[in-house]
């Protein structure tokens, strides 16, 4: 999400114009223009107000939807609608807030649910479908990737 979609910064604009114009010139002019542009960008970034830490309300709403409906076949547009922003803005903000994409977060929720169901004694095929995986082999692939063992081995070790 952009704090400001349009920047009013004459120094930065001049530096970018100069950098663009220098692309047709020699190396020295390019190096000088690049240096001036980087300096202008650093100045601009150092004077911007800091973004608040922690997830925004939109990102929290998307996360709450994922947690409530992790087993459902949610689309990026479903999350964006719940959050009230574009799917692209939501993806960027979600990754910035939680360090993973919404699809990865959903998969982690599904794996935790499947692990809980397996520990309760449910068969792997049932745990797979109840936790949102397409089938047992789909669960097995992801379970092994995340936990390093198959659901069957997990059940055996849990006993």
What does the model show?
There is one protein chain. This protein has 159 residues and is mainly α. Helices cover 70% and strands 0% of the residues. The protein is built from nine helices and no strands. α1 packs antiparallel against α2, α3 crosses α5 and α7 packs across α8. The longest helix has 21 residues.
Which descriptors apply to this entry?
single chain; 159 residues; mainly alpha; 9 helices; 70% helix; 0% strand; elongated
Distance between the termini: 48 Å
Radius of gyration: 24 Å
- In sequence order, what are the helices and strands, one letter per element? HHHHHHHHH
Structural class: mainly alpha
CA-based shape: elongated
Mean pLDDT: 86
The percent range for helix content is 55-70%
């Amino acid at each position: 999400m952009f704090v400001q979609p349009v920047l009013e910064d004459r120094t930065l604009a001049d530096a970018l114009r100069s950098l663009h114009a220098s692309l047709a010139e020699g190396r020295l002019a390019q190096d000088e223009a690049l240096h001036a542009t980087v300096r202008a960008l650093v100045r601009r970034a150092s004077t911007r107000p800091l973004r608040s830490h922690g997830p925004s309300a939109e990102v929290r709403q998307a996360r709450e939807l994922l947690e409530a409906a992790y087993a459902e076949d949610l689309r990026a547009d479903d999350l964006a609608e719940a959050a009230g922003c574009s799917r692209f803005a939501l993806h960027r903000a979600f990754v910035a807030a939680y360090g993973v994409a919404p699809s990865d977060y959903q998969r982690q929720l599904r794996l935790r649910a499947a692990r809980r169901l397996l520990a309760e004694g449910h068969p792997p095929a049932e745990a797979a479908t109840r936790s949102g995986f397409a089938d047992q082999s789909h669960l097995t692939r992801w379970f092994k990737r995340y936990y390093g063992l198959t659901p069957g081995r997990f059940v055996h070790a849990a006993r």
